[in-house]
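Risk mitigation, structural track. In case the binding assays with protoporphyrin IX containing FE fail to produce interpretable data, a predicted complex structure has been prepared as a fallback.
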Amino acid sequence: MSSESAPTLPGDWLWGNLKDFNRDNLSFIESAARAGDLVRIRFGPMGGIFVNHPDYVCQVLAARSKSFRKPAVVKRALNDILGENIFTSNGASWKRSRQALQPAFHRRHVDRYAQIMLDCAERELCGWQADSIVDLEAAMIRVTMNIIAKTMFDADLGDYADELTAVFTRLFHLAYKRMALYALVPNWLPTRDNREVKRLTAELRHLLRRYIAEWRAGRANDASLLNLVLAPAPKMSDEQLINEAITIIGAGYETTAYTLVFTWLAMMQNPAVMDRVYAEVDETIGSRAMTLEDLPAFDYTERVVKEALRLYPSAWGLSRSTLEPVEIAGVTLMRNSMVLVSPWTLGRDPRFFPDPLRFDPDRHLKENAASIPHYAYIPFGGGGRTCLGIRFALMEAVIIIALIAQRLRLEPEPGSASGPKSVAFTLRPNGPMRVKLSPRNGAANAYTKPASAGSRLCNTHNGMSPCPHFG
Ligand code: HEM
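Fallback model:
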């Protein structure tokens, strides 16, 4: 294949494809995918390529990852918010961060975080009344934010979770606006947006500095993520720690929250799947409290989450730029070319997933998953920069779904979201996610507090008295 054999996606003479991309990210990448497996694109002055075949994706993310880096535009848009951090850094700096953070995400530690996940999910559910209507999006964001803060700092955010998520949401929105303009406006220019970024970042860093000071003063328990990060890297400064903390919170809460939202959406649209989840939950825990030992039994529920991630990958696009000229399948990319890969288009490609729009969790059964090409299913990325939080996120999602399914049936309210749309870096529902809760077979009222599970019950009630809604 010669360099000319990669088709060029038509675009504006000045902005190239940037306007189409900004107008509707998902439609844009779908049109690029229709044009071929390697398609030339241009965002303003920056030329690049859309890569949409697992073999070529493997080249970018894994086999020749040393020739690629995170793009400068991402770094420029985020550097005054996140500082030097695992997500945007490259080379030796990335390696240092990855080595420092990776042990904290080891299986044996993540298993310990499961208790925190159970506690936080229980606390959220205590606020849910049978026969009421819940804003599922807000609830999932609240619970995932509470979980990550508790895991990391041993901090109980309580009602502050909503405020903290508002700060993160706004900051990411402003960072995305910068990227939409290809980060051409310098961050130091005192524009209204830049001043707001400065104010919110200062607020956030101030809060995290306080958590870190409290944690250094010995308030956090031994299993907190920070302890695990600092054990192998005791020299990490507070500022570096804050950078990594903001990054992990930012990378971890919203992606998982929206995965939960889309898993529920998919289940509500596929009642047979929902019934199998209910059956698995009933068989595994019935109406008793869930324990960590139950988790391996939620095999089907985990496959449902994986399937939701195929159709609704919350990180729908991954980007890189070339560090040197690179050739992929005969197509030459010049140094500093932008490379775009999409878990969204790959996960919906009939070549790799027959009848792709059918929601079928059994695609992820071991024997079936073997026929999915490597790098066709990449909701968590791939290669050396694969998501650090895979186990964390899957475990968290399964716990939250199982706890809800144990007690409640969810039905969408009229006018609720029917699918996804893309907003900034993540997929969001295309409408409100208001769901009606009804008790399942009286299970909500049959929930009883087992004698040994004080902390597993609703924290608000301290495990001392039954939760008013589920007790
Ligand atoms: C369902 C939820 C999640 C999804 C879909 C997701 C997706 C991803 C993806 C696609 C990447 C790779 C980005 C790239 O290559 O450009 C990534 C990286 C990362 N994720 Fe996740 N993530 C999730 C949850 C989490 C959680 C819960 C945490 C931490 C608690 C986390 C921490 C990270 C970190 C630190 C990186 C950067 C890794 C590196 O560059 O070395 N993620 N995530």
